[in-house]
Amino acid sequence: METTKQIADRVHARILRGFKYRTDESNYGVEEDWRFPDNVDRVTDDCDGFAIACRVLLREEGLDTRLVVCYTETNEGHLVCATGNLILDNRQRKVTTKEALEKSGYNFKFVSGLDPGDEWKELI
Predict the structure, then answer these.
(1) pTM, two decimal places
(2) Which of 4, 71, 99, 124 has the most crowded Cβ, counting Cβ within 10 A?
(3) pLDDT level of residue 44 (50, 70, 90 thresholds)
(4) CA 103/CA 10 separation, integer angstroms
């Protein structure tokens, strides 16, 4: 039986393999647009498309997931997918941890609930 880390590694690698970064402005003509990708194996989107695709596949594997709004080391707004302490991030070549990203300058601000429609919570 696969561990959570093995599942997360497999999902991250799968999404990253077909991921092409493209801004929401280029895709949809607006600054921000969060939507489910049509094809998780060929995501052409920004960080939210990547994070949402990861969340879809992790949930299909039966894992609890959350979306997390953070700021990168350059203070750029960013979205990642979390399952437990593991973070799936389009800016990273491998699955990492919240602590590792914080050490590199990430600042985690808001976390989604586990289910669609759940309230987001501010991280203090």
Answers:
(1) 0.90
(2) 4
(3) confident
(4) 24
